[in-house]
Amino acid sequence: MDDPEGRFTALYDRHYRSLLGYALLRAEQGVAEDVVSETFLVAWRRLPEVPEPALPWLIGVARNLLRKQRDSRLRGESLVDRFAALGGEPAAADVAEHVVAREAALAALAALPERDVEALVLTVWHGLTPAEAALATGSSRAAFAVRLHRARRRLARALDEAPAAPRVLSMTSQEQRCP
Amino acid sequence: MPMSKESDELFAALRPAGLDELTAEAYGRRREGDLARALASPRGAAEGRRDPLPARPAWRLRLAVAGTAAAGLAAAAVVVPGAVGTGADPVPGGSGRAAATPAAPPRSVRLDARSVLLASATAAERASEETGAYWYRRERTFERIRFPGAGTGKPARRQELPYRAYAAHTQESWFARDGGARSRTVTGQDVKVTFASEADEAAWRKAGSPELWRAERSVNDYDMALKWLIGAHRMTMADLRALPRDEAGLEAELRRLHAAEKPADWDEVPDFPSYVWSTAQDLLAGPIRPATKAALYRVLARQDGIRAREHVRDPLGRTGVAVETTWDGEDGRRPARLIVDPGSGELLAFESRVSRTGEADLRVAYADSGWSDSLGEPPGD
């Protein structure tokens, strides 16, 4: 690559927000930001090894750094708890194609193993393919496919069973929030 | 509709709304610093470059920003015209015996870095052995702003700024001695942006006076034990306090740690002199015991390729002695500096990537340090 600084800057600009969004599910803000900084430092040092698309690789590095961060006081807090902590009202638009109680969906997810929820985070929020997400999480494609399937099935059931609750959630299809 | 589509849509809508705001805000605030620090560190080995020291391998939280500096050692000696030597080296150009004759005073004397460091060790040793609940440090950082866009959140501006601008900012830190207690940093204080010349400032104005550095004070509490680094080893405050307090013991410990470095953490594990240099840069202003600090100066004094330069002003205008080494960067060999006060044994500042014109990319001055008993308060007198 002729222009490593340009490539690196572009990587940063394209993926910073997505990566921090991921890290915030695992650590409080200050720590998450530091982990993302460190992730990009690693990317700079290993720039020739960084593949395209880069996001799965970056998430893999951040994930390892977060795991090393054993002191985090978020240890033990589940991903689903974290959704609530990061809170606000759900990111949703106006076409009410499905209506479901948010709590029902969150409750369904809370009952799942952490890594199953992570499978959805990576594929749905971050747009990774199952193969890329398997790479980022260091698992086999088969194992990843099982997790993803389990998480989707659990959510689908929640959809079916959800009452038309007063606190509703509406959404458009394929809403993509992350760059 | 297939199950996966429905459930994926549901999951997409569960994404916390606060996330976008949080990440956009952080992106604007962190971009400049993150890019500058990464780009200031040596690039990957596959680029064909072999910088003697890689970027700092482990992550160390914002409070240790300064640790991104890299240094390597190369044998060199400089003649400083007119400077007063503290060493016993003969006058350059004269024969060894000529030095014995009390003839005309030398016009120039090679300064002896070893003597400077040994004097600093002696002074450091005299400091009293105190402790408190927090190790306090106030540091002022001066760094080149290389890329536009800080605080704007605008994407992909890869061109370097067409003018030379610098940011200065101050950080205070309270490192809890008790590993379970809260530590704190206060960043973004007294932010000042300056320009290399009036022409540079005029160019900035012409560009519409864009915001170059976000001036925002931020109080960050850490309910976790903060770590220091020796190489890639993460050290707690207790680890630092337990370091050997004599030269031989400390050197043995540093060699042990150096030998235990994992190549996976580095592009290339630095040589031992470089390892000692970066340890000194990070720990001489840290909560190590006075005897350990003295030993660290002495171990550093034994390394080759370090030279001294007297009557140097640190970024805060304090006079000290610069101890310099040289490392190979992208644009040739450039010195890195520690500025010490041999009278007190304090590390006043360090500078890294000093260019041929004497201008540093990164300069950190330790304005104050010591033990404090209360979070948020500097040490009392």
The main sheet of chain B comes to: 9 strands, antiparallel
Instruction: Count helical runs of chain B.
Output: 8
First and last CA, distance of chain A = 24 Å
What does the overall shape of chain B look like? globular
Over the alpha carbons, how many angstroms does the gyration radius of chain B reach? Answer: 23 Å
Residues in helix, % of chain B:
25-40%
Strand elements of chain A, count: 0
Which secondary-structure class do the elements of chain A indicate?
Answer: mainly alpha
Strand content of chain A: under 5%
Q: Which stretches of chain B are low in confidence, meaning pLDDT under 50 for 5 or more residues running?
A: 44-110, 150-158
Order of helices and strands of chain A: HHHHHHHH
Largest protein interface, residues of each chain: A-B, 73 and 57 residues
Structural class of chain B: alpha+beta
Supply the CATH superfamily name of the largest domain in chain A: Winged helix-like DNA-binding domain superfamily/Winged helix DNA-binding domain
Terminal CA distance of chain B reads 73 Å
Biggest beta sheet summary of chain A: none
Q: What shape does the CA trace of chain A take?
A: globular
Q: Indicate the low-confidence ranges of chain A by residue numbers.
A: 88-100, 163-179
Structural topology:
The complex is a heterodimer of chains A (179) and B (381).
Chain A: H1 4-23, H2 29-45, H3 55-68, H4 79-86, H5 102-110, H6 114-125, H7 130-136, H8 141-161
Chain B: H1 3-13, H2 18-39, E1 80-81, E2 108-109, H3 113-126, E3 134-145, E4 165-176, E5 183-195, H4 198-206, E6 218-222, E7 228-230, E8 233-235, H5 237-241, H6 247-259, H7 272-283, H8 290-301, E9 307-313, E10 319-329, E11 332-341, E12 346-354, E13 360-372
Antiparallel strand pairs in B: 1-2, 3-4, 3-13, 4-5, 5-6, 7-8, 9-10, 10-11, 11-12, 12-13
Keywords (chain A): DNA-binding, Sigma factor, Transcription, Transcription regulation
Protein name (chain A): Sigma-70 family RNA polymerase sigma factor
Family (chain A): Belongs to the sigma-70 factor family. ECF subfamily.
